[in-house]
Design goal:
By secondary structure, the chain is an alpha+beta fold. The chain has three helices and 13 strands, in the order αβββαββββββββββα. It has two domains: 85 residues, Trypsin-like serine proteases (Thrombin, subunit H, Beta Barrel); 89 residues, Thrombin, subunit H. The strands form two sheets. The protein has a seven-stranded antiparallel beta sheet.
């Protein structure tokens, strides 16, 4: 007889391990300031803009290896930034199209809340909406969920049950609602920024 509980637990464990391989600790040389994810195997890292603001994160720690990180692009309106480290053959995050998300769907957040490494929290998609901005877009799409977030989760991934990134966690509202930037917004930002900075290449890591 198949133990469904044990099977599910094992599957989730494997999902978390896969996500953690692409998770980065970002710090300023003194303390951790946030999380990031490997977007491309050649060292492209995505995080929140507020994590890198004012020189906040310039070093990336991955699998006990520390790399100087160069800021490639940032956009405070969507709270996204791209860092580049000199490394290759890194494990890129699997990315899914957030358009496929539904309210009530299980999601996981992985990050470093309060400096604790690789912490996983689970929750459900609560809803979708827009956040008003002061930039030229005037508003940005957001995902709302009840995953538990804290300082140190910023820039880390919101993933679906398959371990594919559906958003980048960015803030908490109302004390208990996590806000993430949808993956399709992140992808558009990354593609345009890399093209503008001469780093575009044929897509090797596509949507899941």
């Amino acid at each position: 007889m198949i133990d469904l509980t044990a099977t599910l637990a094992k599957a989730l464990e494997e999902v978390v391990q896969r996500v953690q391989r692409s998770l980065v600790v970002l710090h300023n040389g003194h303390q951790g300031v946030g999380a990031g994810i490997i977007w491309r195997s050649d060292g492209v890292i995505v995080t929140n803009q507020h994590v890198v603001a004012h020189g906040g994160a310039r070093t990336a720690l991955l699998d006990r290896r520390e790399y100087p990180a160069r800021l490639v692009a940032e956009d405070p309106e969507v709270d996204l930034a791209i860092l580049k480290i000199d490394a290759n053959r890194l494990p890129p995050s699997l990315v899914a199209d957030a358009h496929s998300l539904r309210v009530g769907q299980l999601v996981l957040a992985v990050g470093h809340p309060w400096g604790q490494r690789n912490v996983v929290t689970a929750g459900l998609i609560s809803g979708f909406g827009t956040a008003q901005t002061r930039g030229p877009r005037h508003s940005v799409e957001v995902i709302r969920s009840d995953v538990s977030l804290a300082p140190g989760n910023s820039g880390g991934p919101l993933v679906n049950a398959a371990g594919a990134v559906v958003g980048i966690n960015t803030m908490i509202v109302g004390g208990d609602q996590g806000i993430a930037i949808p993956s399709h917004v992140v992808s558009a930002f990354v593609e345009e920024a890399l093209r503008r900075n001469g780093l575009a290449r044929p897509a090797l890591e596509a949507y899941a």
